[in-house]
Amino acid sequence: MSYLTWLIPIALLMGATALLAFLWSLRDGQYEDLDGAAQRILLDDGEDRPAAAGGPRYSRPEPE
Amino acid sequence: MTVCCAPGADVGSARRWPSDEEVRLASRALSEQLMQTDLSVPSAHCAACIRAIETALLALPGVEAARLNLTTRRVSVQWLKDGPVPPFFATLTRAGYDAALYTHDQSEDDPEFGRLLRATAVAGFAAMNIMLLSVSVWSGADAGTRHAFHLISALLALPTIAYSGRVFFASAWSALKHRRTNMDVPISVGIVLTLALSLHDTLRNEPHAYFDAVVSLTFFLLVGRTLDHMMRRKARTAIVGLARIMPRGAVTISADGTREYKDVRTIAKGETLFVAPGERIPLDGTITEGRGELDAQLVTGEVEPVNAGPGDHVSAGMLNLNGSLTIRAEREAGESFLSEMIRMMEAAEAGRSGYRRIADRAASLYSPVIHTLAFIAFAGWMAATGDWHRALTIAVSVLIITCPCALGLAVPMVQVMAARRLFERGIALKEGSALERLAETDTVVFDKTGTLTLGDLRVAASTVPENHLEAAAALAFNSRHPAARAIASLRPDSRMAVEDFAEYPGLGIEGRINGALYRLGRPSWACRGVVSDNEKSMSALSCDGELAGTFTFADTPRPDAKEAVQALWEREFELEVLSGDGERAVAAVARDLGFERWRSAMLPADKVARLDELRGQGRKVLMVGDGLNDAPALSAAHVSMAPGNAAEIGRNAADLVFFNASLAAVPAALAIARRAGALVKQNLGLAVIYNVTVLPLALAGHVTPLIAAIAMSLSSILVVANALRLRGDTPKPVAAGRRAGKLAEAAS
């Protein structure tokens, strides 16, 4: 029984962490452009942060 | 770099780019220095597109940032406010993409989607953890551990249901308030009763609790609901991203002669407006100065341009082809021809609001039966054993096991799949109920101009010899008149220089090529002494006063129009054309495409009246149309479709919008809707069979939480798997119908 008092809270905590991570990513706008995210992985350069509600954070790439 | 693949949407080719003033009007200021403009780029669809578009825009001076969202197909550009407006449209066109200005509209903000996603995530988290605990209980935990696990489950389930269940509770409550019942009523009753009973049992340390069932049920239903919402959102963004047709603003001329670009909504009655060639009339009014030809296709459906001069009345939406017009606004944006259409649309929509979705109809049959059964079970066990707790447990287990998990997923999953299949074919479905209405359709009514035809003229016959043809094309290249555009497209690479070009509205164009004076236009004008019986549908070319030849024109049919009409006819739909154009033009197109019935010179109200008449005969009509004059008819029909290049008002009124030029979208949508309708019926049948099978178990009191969980998951998987069977290809026409014989006759 005593090991359960540790394992159950740990399991719940891990689950809750994942939930919080999801809610954070949702608010951060990471689900705004799923199609784009799938395609951008094919591009070598550039920024891959999402464009949040405030507008794009993408800026002019550094000259190579 | 080159454009990688064929664009996904090919609506509207030769279009005018918005002016700088219009771009500024549609942009919003981000800070002191920065402006943000959103452009929709419907043909962007891959990684190479992202790079091509972003690189091209970032290379422009003044552009600070550019980011393409591939889901919404919109690119946000930030640029320096103080500098000139960067040439976005020219740049994107050079990169190979058609672009349109996009204005952010408050009504598109979608807080509901975020709410659904969060509710689903919370329910998913709780369902996983409770299931973890439940499996330990089912595999034989001792009494103390079981009690502890049930308590932890209760602690997880209570806030989860309170948070995630709101979606169902709110909808059920609003249905009950209006004395109706929908799918969410039995769901809510089931959830609340199960939760209450499980709490009671947990506190009394009973062996069974149904927390896992109630939370995973909520999770599954929310997944279905979220997918449903996502599909509608996708369709909506695709439609909103289409190019705007009605002007956003207009140039006003004040009494002292200063010109200013103003938002249409701020222009008052009596103001003087300037409309340059190639622009659309922004408001209803009267021409005070200038003369020109107006293309009224969108407003009345007539293909032939109208010649207008001072004193003539013009309606919002007409395209000014060649004159510089000064117009006195006679109505404000809120009361123009357009808003009259909107008023008619609202009146027409009343006829359709009686439609009830199939899931709600199923629920209204289902919930009284289930709730009565649960009550009978309770009463029966109460009478037999006198143990109210036992009786209540059995009544609730009846509710849980029959809880419309499968039913709640059966319809949305099929509709999500159907919407996906439609989207793959370039058709956006606005809401699920349209799919159900489409499946019932037995009559298809088409508008002519812009729907069956593209509204572009093409040269049907020409008697002009080869040596003059190039000159005619070069001359025609300078005019926006539809007839001239048709002639110019005969020799698109003509490079002959035209001098002294002049356009005479209503008559024709002239210019000097290699020293010779060419005139192209009305036969009687181009070449004195020539009289023709069909002055309007014919143009003559003259060289130094000598007749060189004539052109006759016809409306270009939409690609695949004939095949589409044929396919519909074979599948035994009644077909009809309702057009605002003249009898001769309508009859020619209708006969050519194989229609047996058509009506011409219909006003918007006539179209609605005809649709009402068809409804009175018990017909379910699909209306396909594009113009402003079709908008009321689109609302009045049982279900409606519009092409992507339709006027905004038509796109908004239609239930489905197709983006490809091909008319094959109509039979394809009908086929997919019918297949989806069949799958929905199968799924509802499966749900009924499942309920009939497990109900005796529940009534006999043999349902444990483990059995409930297995039965519910199995039924959900079954209906989802069945929904996934929906294919998107067009079926081969079956040559066994009533009309097959007639076809063979026609062929021989």
UniProtKB/TrEMBL annotation, chain A:
Keywords in alphabetical order: Membrane, Transmembrane, Transmembrane helix
The keyword Nucleotidyltransferase appears for this protein: no
Iron found in the keyword field: no
Chain residue ranges for the region called Disordered: 45-64
Pfam families for the chain: FixS (PF03597)
Transmembrane segments: 6-26
InterPro entries, per the entry: Cyt_oxidase_maturation_cbb3
Highest taxon above the source species: Bacteria
PANTHER family per the UniProt record, alphabetical: FIXS PROTEIN (PTHR41532:SF1)
Family matches, as NCBIfam families: ccoS
Name recorded for this polypeptide: Cbb3-type cytochrome oxidase assembly protein CcoS
Taxonomic lineage of the native organism: Bacteria, Pseudomonadati, Pseudomonadota, Alphaproteobacteria, Hyphomicrobiales
Protein encoded by which gene: ccoS
